[in-house]
Amino acid sequence: MTDSEVKAPKIEFPCADYPIKIIGDTGVGFKDKVIEIVEKHATVDMKSLAERQSSNGKYTTVQLHIIATGQDQLYDINSELRATGFVHMVL
């Protein structure tokens, strides 16, 4: 590996403080719908929950931390959130 290449950090599971950022269309209940979906798959640290709207109000970002148990769990959360149609990005 050269100096210009960056190696992705290896995540060790379980990870008790895994951050997730969800970006989607602003709408009534966006945060509640996101939490409902994530809670199907993981324990959410509600103290870490933050919500912010874009400057024009079109998009909302929800940030939270979960207890991540593995790659399959993260894939399932991402897939279900993206399938809603109102979530554009999961980081």
TrEMBL record:
Gene3D superfamilies listed in its UniProt record: 3.30.70.260
One GO cellular component term: cytosol
Top-level taxonomic group: Bacteria
Family as reported in the entry's similarity comment: Belongs to the UPF0250 family.
NCBIfam families: PRK00341.1 (NF001486)
Annotated PANTHER family: UPF0250 PROTEIN YBED (PTHR38036)
HAMAP family recorded: UPF0250 (MF_00659)
Annotated protein name in UniProt: UPF0250 protein IFT62_22000
Gene source species: Pseudomonas lutea
